[in-house]
Amino acid sequence: MERKRKFKRPSDIARHQSSAISKMTSNSSPSTPGGLEFANDGRVTLHFGNDVVTVDYREHLEVDPENLDEALIRQPGLYAYYSRLLGMQKALLETAKNEFKEYQARIYTFIKQRLQVGLRRPTEAEVSAKIAEDGQYKARKQRLVEMQLQLDFLWSIRDGLVQKKDCLITLAANRRREWDADLHVNKSEKRQSLEETKRNFEEKRKKRE
Question: Domain containing 61: what range?
Fold first, then answer.
């Protein structure tokens, strides 16, 4: 007997991803630009620089077998929308990484010069320790972590939309097969009814003769 393959719903995959991200960011301030803010109703607030976007990712990933036509119509638009958000986040993260590298180089030079006393040069460990204490360095590094988490979350949403598309196509194909089967049954029943009517007519005609 062939085993049925069990699919995870796309909304469940994203929900597990959001739960993991929430645990990782539980100690960060929710008002920090770039941080993810999850609501209990399935909405999540995303930060793109000074722009803020709130999306209902559970509703966007949910598959309703009773409303396939509308879901199939909306699917391309949802995929394009999250692809655009993903592209924006990738660009912002790349810019933030470059800015972080530049700041890291500046603060390294500054601290190294400040720690140098006479002919004694500071060790790399001493410079690194002082850099790690710098408030702006820590803030920029934390922001990179939050931006990476948001990028990973958007990747999970887009991957979930791909799985949703596959689910919708499978459900639509199953529905078509059911319709074809029902149509075949109806045709068979009509054919049998017509044949039975003809037989009855022939029997009555023979009796009259």
Answer: 10-208
